[in-house]
Design a protein that fits this description.
- The complex is a heterodimer of chains A (about 150) and B (about 60).
- Chain A has one domain: 3-Layer(aba) Sandwich (Hypothetical Protein Ychn, Chain: A), CATH 3.40.1260.
- Chain A is about 50% helix and about 15% strand.
- Chain A has 7 helices and 5 strands.
- Chain A has a 5-stranded parallel β-sheet with strand order 4-3-2-1-5, with helices on both faces.
- In chain A, helix 2 (about 35-50) packs parallel to helix 5.
- The mean pLDDT of chain A is about 90.
- Chain B has one domain: Translation Initiation Factor IF3.
- Chain B is built from 2 helices and 3 strands.
- Chain B has helices spanning about 1-10, 30-40; strands spanning about 20-25, 40-50, 50-60.
- Chain B is globular and about 30 Å long.
- The chains are: A alpha/beta (about 150), B alpha+beta (about 60).
Chain lengths: ~150, ~60
């Protein structure tokens, strides 16, 4: 595909999104591995760069990304040589999460998961904005302008 | 991730000022069109030469 035709497609997609009025991105981050964390963080921070409201709702294994120990383990999904290749090009999960927070991405922790895993607010990283449940997530995701993805 | 870097830099500029971006990401041409449409910063140049993409954004 030429750069021109993909640019045209991007323009069409954006025009369509404007008609639909998609102005918020709401991600459900349900996996704790860095292979799922990187795409989530790239989407969430890019949404902010495009001027969208951006939310990440971390649930179940995704909550591991909100604990210092879980974050370290998140890179275990990659073989060592791949970890080095990623480190050469991308920020670490810790750095990326801090950048997302700095860019205005809202970081939500899942209350039922915290109960299940015996986590307390004090055991979470300080990027967490609040602890919410399914009802609040559904409230957020029910906005007519929201684009929601379960990752 | 050229868009994330460009986005952070253009916020430090003011109306009419230009930002030149050189990138090797093949997704950059369509991403910069999307970025410009969404944010209102004008994409003045969008060219490619020997695998290097060059963009000039004008702050709105």
């Amino acid at each position: 595909m030429t750069a021109g035709s993909s640019a045209t497609r991007a323009t069409e997609t954006i025009e369509h999104a404007k008609q639909e009025g998609k102005k918020s991105l709401i991600l459900v981050v349900s996996k704790g591995g860095a292979d799922m964390a990187y795409p989530s963080l790239i989407l969430a921070t890019t949404a902010r760069a495009l001027g969208m409201d951006s939310h990440m709702y971390f649930t179940f294994w995704g909550m591991q990304l909100l604990t210092p120990e879980g974050r370290k383990k998140s890179m275990d999904v990659f073989p060592p040589e791949m970890r080095q290749a990623i480190a050469a090009k991308f920020p670490t999960i810790e750095q990326f999460m801090a950048q997302a927070k700095q860019a205005g991405v809202h970081i939500h922790a899942c209350s039922p998961t915290m109960d299940m895993f015996g986590l307390t607010k004090a055991s979470l990283v300080n990027e967490v904005d609040d602890i919410i449940g399914a009802s609040t997530y559904l409230e957020l995701a029910s906005r007519p302008d929201a684009l929601t993805l379960f990752i | 991730m050229p868009i994330l870097k460009a986005s952070a830099l253009i916020e430090t500029l003011h109306g009419g000022e230009l930002l030149e971006v050189l990138a090797d990401d093949p997704a950059a041409p369509s991403d910069f069109v999307a970025f410009s449409k969404r944010t209102g910063h004008t994409l003045r140049e969008n060219t490619e030469s020997g695998g290097t993409y060059r963009f000039v954004l004008e702050h709105k």
